[in-house]
TrEMBL record:
It comes from the Bacteria. Residues 117-290 form the Mur ligase central domain. It comes from Planococcus halocryophilus. The gene is murD. Pathway: Cell wall biogenesis; peptidoglycan biosynthesis. This is UDP-N-acetylmuramoylalanine--D-glutamate ligase. It catalyses: UDP-N-acetyl-alpha-D-muramoyl-L-alanine + D-glutamate + ATP = UDP-N-acetyl-alpha-D-muramoyl-L-alanyl-D-glutamate + ADP + phosphate + H(+).
Length: 454
């Protein structure tokens, strides 16, 4: 870990604990900063705060005193989930106190370079694919960020021989100042998280911060099929590496209906790629380009693409049984995500959908409902999905209770050649505590019911 003399004896407020706040507070304390932690959870229920207190960190729990910033803090490091409308964050900005997320801290202390990946969709799959490709090519990657591993904790242990493959959200990037990845990837940008950012302009600006400090020594990999990113690339100092799904080009990485290409040469036949879906092809192109820039080999890329079946709960291939293929896309908690999943399969889909009622529009998936042979719906939105499917011309609509019942009815209604796809287009919280638990219930039911009939 690098020393950070600019933080030594600086008075720092860490706002919000969870994993990222705890790690940031511990590292800042180790660097010699005077750290105060403020978290809403009561101290007696807060083991992280208790541990930090034992390290000598000042801890204020159970409330957020409005006058806290009167104590002369020189820096605020906030949990990414805390909105900028928070009264303490507003006060800090008015006082011109810098507000960081722990990504900035990770960059300051890391001996290893960063590869940063962001986008409205696909960043987890791209991050995971790239990590596997670099790992199999012995490039010493570490994985971090929004994918679940706190970046500053990874950076603390990283060596110069490593590279940190980092998934980054707009929430995290908004709180960066000097952060500079040697390779930056933006998979795509759509309208999202307006409840947090307030405007689409702030959301986009936060995403684009990924490239703002790059130099001519760095690389920017971007989706050339999005005019917004093409325009942004014009102002970037990094070497530009566009990717496109609109046919073979001599420039960097591209794809047509049959092949993926690198600089115009065939890299892999698309039919040999295990990861299904046009949306996943964007992720594949971005990961392949970054791997080759980082010194990886085409052979490793091919080996990964012919074996990688997807990130868990994101169009994850489960198994094939009696001619039916089962896919778990429980992460699809909105219509746009389900649209991407439906695009991956041209026909004969048994779609399992439904969940928490948020009154979100389903119009994104309407053009693809002609691919749905049977709809099995469940949860609070069951009736609305039923009406929507009837309007969309789906011939067979089945209502189920929870996941085991939905899987059972889906199998009963299916035939050889069908795809049984869980892509709910809704959050899980009406029946399950998380989309992960919902997806695990699907996987368990699939294995239980197919193995009973083998």
């Amino acid at each position: 870990m690098k020393e950070a003399p600019q933080l030594y004896q600086k008075k720092v407020l860490v706002l919000g604990l969870a994993k990222s706040g705890f790690t940031a507070a511990r590292i800042l304390n180790k660097l010699g900063a005077f750290v105060t932690v403020n978290d809403s959870k009561p101290f007696e229920e807060n083991p992280e705060a208790q541990e930090l207190l034992n390290m000598g960190v000042t801890v204020i729990c159970g409330r957020h005193p409005e006058d806290l910033l009167e104590e002369g803090f020189e820096l605020v490091v906030k949990n990414p989930g805390i909105p900028y409308t928070n009264i303490l964050i507003q006060s800090a900005m008015q006082k011109k106190i810098p507000v960081w997320t722990e990504i900035e801290l990770a960059y300051l202390i890391s001996e290893a370079p960063f590869i940063g990946i962001t986008g409205s969709n696909g960043k987890t799959t791209t991050t995971t694919l790239l990590f596997h490709m670099l790992n199999q090519d012995n490039k010493n990657p570490l994985i971090a960020g929004n994918i679940g591993t706190v970046a500053s904790g990874v950076a603390e242990k990283a060596k110069a021989s490593n590279v940190i493959v980092t998934e980054l959200s707009s929430f995290q990037l908004k709180g960066t100042v000097a952060f500079r990845p040697t390779i930056a990837i933006i998979t795509n940008i759509y309208e999202a998280h307006l409840d947090y950012h307030g405007t689409i302009e702030d959301y986009r600006t936060s995403k684009m911060k990924l490239t703002s400090n790059q130099t001519t020594d760095d690389y920017f990999i971007y989706n050339a099929d999005q005019p917004l990113l093409v325009e942004h690339a014009k102002s970037c100092k990094a070497k530009l590496v566009p990717f496109t799904l609109k046919g073979r080009t001599e420039e960097s990485v591209s794809a047509d209906d049959n092949y993926v290409y690198w600089q115009g040469e065939k890299l892999i036949e698309r039919s040999k790629i295990m990861l299904a879906g046009q949306h996943n092809l964007e992720n594949i192109l971005a990961a392949a380009a970054a791997t080759l820039i980082q010194g990886g080999t085409k052979e490793t890329i091919i080996r990964v693409l012919t074996s990688f079946t997807g990130v868990k709960h994101r169009s994850q291939f489960i198994k094939e049984w009696q001619g039916r293929k089962f896919y778990n896309d429980s992460k699809a908690t909105n219509a746009l995500a389900t649209k991407s999943a439906l695009e991956a399969f041209p026909e004969n889909i048994i779609l399992l959908a439904g969940g928490l009622e948020r009154n979100h529009s389903l119009d994104e998936i309407r053009p693809f409902m002609d691919r749905v042979k049977v709809l099995v719906t469940f949860g609070e939105t069951a009736q609305r999905f039923t009406a929507f499917a009837e309007e969309s011309g789906v011939q067979t609509i089945i209502q189920a209770d929870k996941m085991d019942d939905a899987v059972k009815k889906a199998i009963q209604a299916s035939a050889d050649g069908d795809t049984i796809l869980l892509s709910p287009a809704c959050a899980s919280w009406d029946q399950y505590d998380s989309f992960e638990i919902r997806g695990d219930a699907f996987i368990s039911a699939v294995h239980q019911m197919t193995e009973a009939n083998e």
